[in-house]
Protein backbone atom coordinates (compact mmCIF):
# COMPACT_ATOMS: atom_id res chain seq x y z
CA UNK A 1 0.00 0.00 0.00
CA UNK A 2 1.33 3.45 -0.94
CA UNK A 3 2.23 5.96 1.74
CA UNK A 4 -0.43 8.29 0.33
CA UNK A 5 -3.09 5.58 0.61
CA UNK A 6 -2.16 4.89 4.23
CA UNK A 7 -2.31 8.60 4.97
CA UNK A 8 -5.78 8.96 3.43
CA UNK A 9 -7.10 5.83 5.16
CA UNK A 10 -5.74 6.84 8.56
CA UNK A 11 -7.47 10.21 8.34
CA UNK A 12 -10.70 8.50 7.37
CA UNK A 13 -10.55 5.80 10.06
CA UNK A 14 -9.93 8.33 12.87
CA UNK A 15 -12.92 10.36 11.69
CA UNK A 16 -15.06 7.23 11.32
CA UNK A 17 -14.29 5.97 14.84
CA UNK A 18 -15.08 9.39 16.27
CA UNK A 19 -18.38 9.61 14.37
CA UNK A 20 -19.37 6.07 15.33
CA UNK A 21 -18.72 6.80 19.01
CA UNK A 22 -20.67 10.05 18.83
CA UNK A 23 -23.65 8.53 17.01
CA UNK A 24 -23.69 5.52 19.35
CA UNK A 25 -23.94 7.79 22.37
CA UNK A 26 -26.57 10.02 20.74
CA UNK A 27 -28.64 7.01 19.65
CA UNK A 28 -28.61 5.45 23.11
CA UNK A 29 -29.30 8.74 24.91
CA UNK A 30 -32.27 9.50 22.64
CA UNK A 31 -33.58 5.94 23.04
CA UNK A 32 -33.25 6.15 26.83
CA UNK A 33 -35.31 9.34 26.90
CA UNK A 34 -37.90 7.73 24.60
CA UNK A 35 -38.22 4.74 26.93
CA UNK A 36 -37.71 6.61 30.20
CA UNK A 37 -41.40 6.45 31.12
CA UNK A 38 -41.40 2.69 30.55
CA UNK A 39 -38.27 2.22 32.67
CA UNK A 40 -39.64 4.29 35.55
CA UNK A 41 -43.12 2.78 35.39
CA UNK A 42 -41.83 -0.79 35.47
CA UNK A 43 -39.26 -0.05 38.17
CA UNK A 44 -36.70 -2.15 36.31
CA UNK A 45 -33.21 -2.16 37.82
CA UNK A 46 -30.21 -0.54 36.14
CA UNK A 47 -28.46 -3.85 35.44
CA UNK A 48 -31.28 -5.01 33.17
CA UNK A 49 -31.33 -1.69 31.29
CA UNK A 50 -27.55 -1.87 30.73
CA UNK A 51 -27.84 -5.49 29.55
CA UNK A 52 -30.60 -4.50 27.14
CA UNK A 53 -28.44 -1.81 25.51
CA UNK A 54 -25.39 -4.08 25.39
CA UNK A 55 -27.37 -6.59 23.35
CA UNK A 56 -28.71 -3.72 21.20
CA UNK A 57 -25.22 -2.58 20.14
CA UNK A 58 -25.01 -4.70 16.93
CA UNK A 59 -28.42 -3.47 15.75
CA UNK A 60 -27.45 0.12 16.48
CA UNK A 61 -24.13 -0.43 14.71
CA UNK A 62 -25.63 -1.41 11.35
CA UNK A 63 -28.01 1.57 11.53
CA UNK A 64 -25.47 4.29 12.32
CA UNK A 65 -22.54 3.12 10.17
CA UNK A 66 -23.86 4.53 6.83
CA UNK A 67 -24.43 7.96 8.38
CA UNK A 68 -21.04 7.83 10.14
CA UNK A 69 -19.34 6.88 6.86
CA UNK A 70 -20.99 9.81 5.07
CA UNK A 71 -20.04 12.39 7.70
CA UNK A 72 -16.50 11.01 7.92
CA UNK A 73 -15.84 11.11 4.18
CA UNK A 74 -17.27 14.63 3.93
CA UNK A 75 -15.17 15.83 6.87
CA UNK A 76 -11.92 14.26 5.64
CA UNK A 77 -12.24 15.44 2.05
CA UNK A 78 -13.42 18.86 3.24
CA UNK A 79 -10.32 19.16 5.41
CA UNK A 80 -8.07 18.05 2.56
CA UNK A 81 -9.70 20.66 0.35
CA UNK A 82 -9.31 23.38 2.94
CA UNK A 83 -5.57 22.75 3.19
CA UNK A 84 -5.17 22.45 -0.60
CA UNK A 85 -3.92 18.88 -0.25
CA UNK A 86 -6.17 17.60 -3.03
CA UNK A 87 -4.83 20.32 -5.33
CA UNK A 88 -1.27 19.24 -4.47
CA UNK A 89 -2.08 15.59 -5.17
CA UNK A 90 -3.58 16.41 -8.56
CA UNK A 91 -0.64 18.67 -9.40
CA UNK A 92 1.63 15.69 -8.65
CA UNK A 93 -0.21 13.60 -11.22
CA UNK A 94 -2.54 11.69 -8.87
CA UNK A 95 -5.95 11.26 -10.50
CA UNK A 96 -9.26 11.73 -8.70
CA UNK A 97 -9.91 8.00 -8.93
CA UNK A 98 -6.61 7.17 -7.21
CA UNK A 99 -7.38 9.68 -4.46
CA UNK A 100 -10.76 8.04 -3.88
CA UNK A 101 -9.60 4.44 -4.36
CA UNK A 102 -8.65 3.87 -0.66
CA UNK A 103 -12.06 5.17 0.43
CA UNK A 104 -13.89 2.99 -2.09
CA UNK A 105 -11.91 -0.03 -0.91
CA UNK A 106 -12.73 0.74 2.73
CA UNK A 107 -16.38 1.29 1.82
CA UNK A 108 -16.50 -2.20 0.29
CA UNK A 109 -14.82 -3.70 3.38
CA UNK A 110 -17.26 -1.91 5.70
CA UNK A 111 -20.23 -3.09 3.62
CA UNK A 112 -19.16 -6.74 3.77
CA UNK A 113 -18.48 -6.31 7.49
CA UNK A 114 -22.01 -4.98 8.04
CA UNK A 115 -23.40 -7.91 6.06
CA UNK A 116 -21.55 -10.42 8.25
CA UNK A 117 -22.68 -8.67 11.44
CA UNK A 118 -26.29 -8.57 10.26
CA UNK A 119 -26.15 -12.27 9.35
CA UNK A 120 -24.17 -13.77 12.23
CA UNK A 121 -24.59 -11.41 15.18
CA UNK A 122 -27.73 -9.29 14.91
CA UNK A 123 -30.27 -12.18 14.78
CA UNK A 124 -28.99 -13.58 18.09
CA UNK A 125 -28.57 -10.26 19.90
CA UNK A 126 -31.92 -8.97 18.62
CA UNK A 127 -33.64 -11.97 20.17
CA UNK A 128 -31.93 -11.23 23.47
CA UNK A 129 -32.70 -7.50 23.46
CA UNK A 130 -36.30 -8.11 22.37
CA UNK A 131 -36.83 -10.73 25.06
CA UNK A 132 -35.43 -8.38 27.72
CA UNK A 133 -37.68 -5.51 26.59
CA UNK A 134 -40.84 -7.58 26.20
CA UNK A 135 -40.29 -10.05 29.03
CA UNK A 136 -38.63 -7.90 31.67
CA UNK A 137 -38.83 -4.15 31.12
CA UNK A 138 -42.44 -3.99 29.90
CA UNK A 139 -43.55 -6.36 32.66
CA UNK A 140 -41.35 -4.95 35.39
CA UNK A 141 -39.71 -8.29 36.21
CA UNK A 142 -36.38 -8.28 38.00
CA UNK A 143 -34.69 -11.49 36.90
CA UNK A 144 -32.93 -11.90 33.54
CA UNK A 145 -33.99 -15.55 33.46
CA UNK A 146 -37.62 -14.43 33.03
CA UNK A 147 -37.08 -13.13 29.49
CA UNK A 148 -39.81 -13.77 26.95
CA UNK A 149 -40.76 -13.01 23.35
CA UNK A 150 -44.23 -11.98 22.22
CA UNK A 151 -46.13 -13.25 19.18
CA UNK A 152 -44.04 -16.19 17.97
CA UNK A 153 -45.02 -18.26 14.93
CA UNK A 154 -43.62 -21.56 13.70
CA UNK A 155 -44.36 -23.59 10.58
CA UNK A 156 -43.45 -27.16 11.49
CA UNK A 157 -42.93 -30.10 9.16
CA UNK A 158 -46.03 -31.27 7.40
CA UNK A 159 -48.84 -28.74 7.30
CA UNK A 160 -48.98 -27.41 10.83
CA UNK A 161 -48.71 -23.81 11.96
CA UNK A 162 -48.21 -22.91 15.62
CA UNK A 163 -48.80 -19.46 17.07
CA UNK A 164 -48.27 -18.32 20.67
CA UNK A 165 -48.89 -14.95 22.28
CA UNK A 166 -45.73 -15.32 24.38
CA UNK A 167 -42.73 -17.63 24.62
CA UNK A 168 -40.98 -17.74 28.01
CA UNK A 169 -37.35 -18.63 27.40
CA UNK A 170 -36.34 -19.92 30.84
CA UNK A 171 -39.13 -22.51 31.10
CA UNK A 172 -39.62 -23.28 27.37
CA UNK A 173 -43.30 -22.44 27.82
CA UNK A 174 -45.75 -21.09 25.25
CA UNK A 175 -48.82 -19.10 26.35
CA UNK A 176 -52.16 -18.72 24.52
CA UNK A 177 -51.31 -21.31 21.88
CA UNK A 178 -53.08 -21.92 18.56
CA UNK A 179 -52.27 -24.93 16.34
CA UNK A 180 -53.65 -25.19 12.81
CA UNK A 181 -53.46 -28.35 10.67
CA UNK A 182 -53.96 -27.92 6.90
CA UNK A 183 -54.83 -30.40 4.21
CA UNK A 184 -53.19 -30.66 0.79
CA UNK A 185 -55.36 -27.76 -0.45
CA UNK A 186 -54.19 -25.47 2.38
CA UNK A 187 -57.58 -25.63 4.09
CA UNK A 188 -57.69 -25.83 7.87
CA UNK A 189 -58.76 -29.28 9.01
CA UNK A 190 -58.13 -29.05 12.75
CA UNK A 191 -57.70 -26.15 15.13
CA UNK A 192 -56.36 -26.60 18.67
CA UNK A 193 -56.21 -23.84 21.27
CA UNK A 194 -54.51 -24.13 24.64
CA UNK A 195 -53.85 -21.93 27.64
CA UNK A 196 -50.19 -22.91 27.55
CA UNK A 197 -47.77 -25.52 26.25
CA UNK A 198 -44.53 -26.72 27.84
CA UNK A 199 -41.71 -28.88 26.50
CA UNK A 200 -40.87 -32.00 28.51
CA UNK A 201 -39.09 -35.21 27.56
CA UNK A 202 -38.86 -34.14 23.91
CA UNK A 203 -42.63 -33.66 23.62
CA UNK A 204 -45.04 -30.73 23.80
CA UNK A 205 -47.73 -30.89 26.46
CA UNK A 206 -50.80 -28.66 26.08
CA UNK A 207 -52.71 -27.46 29.14
CA UNK A 208 -56.47 -26.75 29.01
CA UNK A 209 -56.67 -27.56 25.30
CA UNK A 210 -59.71 -27.48 22.99
CA UNK A 211 -59.76 -29.27 19.62
CA UNK A 212 -62.05 -28.11 16.81
CA UNK A 213 -62.76 -30.01 13.59
CA UNK A 214 -63.30 -27.79 10.54
CA UNK A 215 -65.11 -28.47 7.25
CA UNK A 216 -63.99 -27.36 3.78
CA UNK A 217 -65.81 -24.05 4.20
CA UNK A 218 -63.79 -23.23 7.30
CA UNK A 219 -66.74 -23.78 9.62
CA UNK A 220 -66.88 -25.87 12.83
CA UNK A 221 -67.82 -29.48 12.26
CA UNK A 222 -69.20 -31.35 15.27
CA UNK A 223 -68.65 -30.57 18.93
CA UNK A 224 -65.29 -29.37 20.24
CA UNK A 225 -63.20 -31.71 22.41
CA UNK A 226 -61.85 -30.53 25.77
CA UNK A 227 -58.60 -31.78 27.35
CA UNK A 228 -57.00 -30.86 30.68
CA UNK A 229 -53.75 -32.14 29.23
CA UNK A 230 -52.91 -33.11 25.66
CA UNK A 231 -49.65 -34.34 24.16
CA UNK A 232 -49.17 -33.33 20.50
CA UNK A 233 -46.84 -34.71 17.88
CA UNK A 234 -45.11 -31.44 17.03
CA UNK A 235 -41.75 -31.84 15.30
CA UNK A 236 -40.27 -28.71 16.85
CA UNK A 237 -38.02 -27.84 19.75
CA UNK A 238 -38.05 -24.65 21.85
CA UNK A 239 -35.02 -23.41 19.94
CA UNK A 240 -37.09 -23.51 16.74
CA UNK A 241 -39.54 -21.00 18.20
CA UNK A 242 -36.63 -18.84 19.26
CA UNK A 243 -35.02 -19.02 15.83
CA UNK A 244 -38.19 -18.42 13.87
CA UNK A 245 -39.74 -15.68 15.96
CA UNK A 246 -41.96 -13.57 13.72
CA UNK A 247 -39.62 -10.55 13.74
CA UNK A 248 -37.57 -10.13 10.59
CA UNK A 249 -34.59 -8.61 12.39
CA UNK A 250 -34.11 -11.81 14.40
CA UNK A 251 -33.55 -13.88 11.24
CA UNK A 252 -30.60 -14.32 8.94
CA UNK A 253 -31.25 -14.47 5.20
CA UNK A 254 -31.08 -18.28 5.32
CA UNK A 255 -33.63 -18.45 8.13
CA UNK A 256 -35.89 -15.92 6.42
CA UNK A 257 -35.75 -17.91 3.18
CA UNK A 258 -36.80 -21.07 5.03
CA UNK A 259 -39.54 -19.15 6.86
CA UNK A 260 -40.94 -17.84 3.56
CA UNK A 261 -41.07 -21.33 2.05
CA UNK A 262 -43.21 -22.50 4.97
CA UNK A 263 -45.32 -19.35 4.87
CA UNK A 264 -46.27 -19.89 1.22
CA UNK A 265 -48.50 -22.76 2.35
CA UNK A 266 -50.59 -20.33 4.40
CA UNK A 267 -50.32 -16.97 2.63
CA UNK A 268 -48.55 -16.57 -0.69
CA UNK A 269 -49.15 -12.81 -0.64
CA UNK A 270 -47.46 -12.39 2.74
CA UNK A 271 -44.56 -14.55 1.60
CA UNK A 272 -44.08 -12.26 -1.42
CA UNK A 273 -43.96 -9.23 0.87
CA UNK A 274 -41.30 -10.93 2.96
CA UNK A 275 -39.34 -11.58 -0.24
CA UNK A 276 -38.76 -7.82 -0.43
CA UNK A 277 -37.34 -7.90 3.11
CA UNK A 278 -35.18 -10.88 2.13
CA UNK A 279 -33.54 -9.02 -0.76
CA UNK A 280 -33.27 -5.80 1.27
CA UNK A 281 -31.40 -7.64 4.03
CA UNK A 282 -28.75 -8.36 1.38
CA UNK A 283 -28.87 -4.93 -0.25
CA UNK A 284 -28.84 -2.73 2.87
CA UNK A 285 -25.23 -3.41 4.02
CA UNK A 286 -23.93 -1.94 0.75
CA UNK A 287 -25.45 1.48 1.47
CA UNK A 288 -22.10 2.50 3.02
CA UNK A 289 -20.30 1.81 -0.25
CA UNK A 290 -22.94 3.69 -2.27
CA UNK A 291 -22.72 6.64 0.15
CA UNK A 292 -18.99 6.96 -0.54
CA UNK A 293 -19.56 6.66 -4.29
CA UNK A 294 -21.99 9.58 -4.17
CA UNK A 295 -20.54 11.82 -1.49
CA UNK A 296 -16.80 11.57 -2.10
CA UNK A 297 -16.55 12.94 -5.67
CA UNK A 298 -18.86 15.84 -4.82
CA UNK A 299 -17.11 16.73 -1.57
CA UNK A 300 -13.63 16.80 -3.17
CA UNK A 301 -14.46 19.43 -5.77
CA UNK A 302 -11.81 22.07 -5.62
CA UNK A 303 -13.28 24.91 -7.64
CA UNK A 304 -14.34 27.98 -5.72
CA UNK A 305 -17.22 27.15 -3.46
CA UNK A 306 -17.13 23.60 -4.82
CA UNK A 307 -16.47 21.95 -1.47
CA UNK A 308 -19.46 23.56 0.22
CA UNK A 309 -21.66 22.91 -2.78
CA UNK A 310 -20.40 19.34 -2.95
CA UNK A 311 -21.15 18.69 0.71
CA UNK A 312 -24.62 20.22 0.47
CA UNK A 313 -25.37 18.36 -2.74
CA UNK A 314 -24.12 15.04 -1.37
CA UNK A 315 -26.27 15.34 1.76
CA UNK A 316 -29.26 16.16 -0.43
CA UNK A 317 -28.58 13.17 -2.70
CA UNK A 318 -28.28 10.83 0.29
CA UNK A 319 -31.61 12.09 1.61
CA UNK A 320 -33.03 11.52 -1.86
CA UNK A 321 -31.52 8.03 -1.79
CA UNK A 322 -33.41 7.08 1.37
CA UNK A 323 -36.61 8.64 0.03
CA UNK A 324 -36.47 6.70 -3.25
CA UNK A 325 -35.47 3.56 -1.39
CA UNK A 326 -38.51 3.82 0.90
CA UNK A 327 -40.80 4.30 -2.10
CA UNK A 328 -39.31 1.31 -3.92
CA UNK A 329 -39.73 -0.93 -0.88
CA UNK A 330 -43.33 0.21 -0.47
CA UNK A 331 -44.09 -0.48 -4.15
CA UNK A 332 -42.35 -3.84 -3.88
CA UNK A 333 -44.44 -4.91 -0.88
CA UNK A 334 -47.54 -3.62 -2.64
CA UNK A 335 -46.81 -5.92 -5.58
CA UNK A 336 -46.16 -3.11 -8.07
CA UNK A 337 -42.43 -3.87 -8.45
CA UNK A 338 -40.50 -7.15 -8.48
CA UNK A 339 -39.04 -7.80 -4.98
CA UNK A 340 -35.39 -7.93 -6.06
CA UNK A 341 -35.78 -4.78 -8.18
CA UNK A 342 -37.43 -2.81 -5.36
CA UNK A 343 -34.69 -3.79 -2.89
CA UNK A 344 -31.70 -3.11 -5.15
CA UNK A 345 -32.89 -0.24 -7.37
CA UNK A 346 -31.64 2.59 -5.13
CA UNK A 347 -28.21 1.02 -4.68
CA UNK A 348 -27.71 0.40 -8.39
CA UNK A 349 -29.14 3.74 -9.54
CA UNK A 350 -27.06 5.87 -7.17
CA UNK A 351 -23.97 3.71 -7.67
CA UNK A 352 -24.17 4.54 -11.39
CA UNK A 353 -24.49 8.25 -10.51
CA UNK A 354 -21.47 7.97 -8.21
CA UNK A 355 -19.35 6.26 -10.86
CA UNK A 356 -20.33 8.97 -13.34
CA UNK A 357 -19.28 11.70 -10.88
CA UNK A 358 -15.95 10.01 -10.22
CA UNK A 359 -15.30 9.61 -13.93
CA UNK A 360 -15.97 13.32 -14.48
CA UNK A 361 -13.95 14.57 -11.48
CA UNK A 362 -11.15 16.91 -12.42
Summarize this structure briefly:
The protein is an alpha+beta fold. It has helices spanning about 5-40, 45-80, 85-90, 95-135, 240-245, 255-265, 270-285, 285-300, 305-335, 340-360; strands at about 150-155, 160-170, 175-180, 190-200, 205-215, 225-230. It starts with a helix and ends with a helix.
Features:
alpha+beta, about 350 residues, six-stranded antiparallel sheet, 2 domains, 10 helices, elongated, single chain, lipopolysaccharide transport protein A fold, about 15% strand, 6 strands
Number of domains: 2
Strand content: 15-25%
What low-confidence regions span 5 or more consecutive residues with pLDDT below 50? none
Shape: elongated
Largest sheet: 6 strands, antiparallel
Rg (C-alpha, Å): 26 Å
User: Fraction of residues in helices?
Assistant: 55-70%
The averaged pLDDT comes out at: 81
Order of helices and strands: HHHHEEEEEEHHHHHH
What does this structure look like?
The protein has 362 residues and is of the alpha+beta class. It has 10 helices and 6 strands. Strands 1-2-3-4-5-6 form a 6-stranded antiparallel β-sheet. Helix 1 packs parallel to helix 4, helix 2 packs parallel to helix 8 and helix 9 packs antiparallel against helix 10. The mean pLDDT is 81.
List the helices and strands and how they pair.
Elements: H1 3-42, H2 46-82, H3 85-91, H4 96-137, E1 148-156, E2 160-168, E3 173-182, E4 188-200, E5 203-213, E6 225-232, H5 238-243, H6 253-263, H7 268-283, H8 287-299, H9 306-333, H10 339-359
Antiparallel strand pairs: 1-2, 2-3, 3-4, 4-5, 5-6
Amino acid sequence: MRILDRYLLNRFMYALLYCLSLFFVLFIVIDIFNNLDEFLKSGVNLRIVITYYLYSIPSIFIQVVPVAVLVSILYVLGTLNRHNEITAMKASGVSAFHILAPYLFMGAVISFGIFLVSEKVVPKTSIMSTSIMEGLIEKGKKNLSERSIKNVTLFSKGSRMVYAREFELSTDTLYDVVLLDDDSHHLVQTKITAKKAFYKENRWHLVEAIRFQMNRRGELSGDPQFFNSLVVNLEAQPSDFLRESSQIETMSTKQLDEYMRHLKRVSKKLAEKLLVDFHYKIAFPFVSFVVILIGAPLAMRTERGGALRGIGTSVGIVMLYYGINSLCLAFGKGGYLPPIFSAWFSNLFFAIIGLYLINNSK
